[in-house]
Write a structure and sequence with these properties.
Layout (H helix, E strand, L loop, with lengths): L9 H6 L1 E2 L5 E4 L12 H7 L2 E3 L5 H10 L2
Antiparallel strand pairs: 1-2, 2-3
């Protein structure tokens, strides 16, 4: 039994999306403010949705299933 209860993180459910093929999608960072100094091509690329790296998947899946 664990020493302490994990705090439920509803933010994980809001920030990540699971596709039908069990891929986890996320939004890219650096798109909230200070956009005037970024060129338009960079901002355009930041708009796209990215896939979560395989290194981060085990913890993300655990947290996702825990608080779903």
């Amino acid at each position: 039994m664990s020493k302490y209860k994990l705090k439920s993180s509803r933010a994980i459910l809001k920030r990540f999306k699971v596709t039908s093929s069990s891929k986890y999608l996320r939004r890219k960072a650096n798109r909230s403010h200070l956009l005037q100094k970024k060129i338009s091509v960079r901002k355009q690329k930041l708009r796209k949705v990215a896939q979560v790296k395989s290194v981060d998947l085990p913890l993300l899946k655990y947290r996702f299933l825990l608080f779903k």
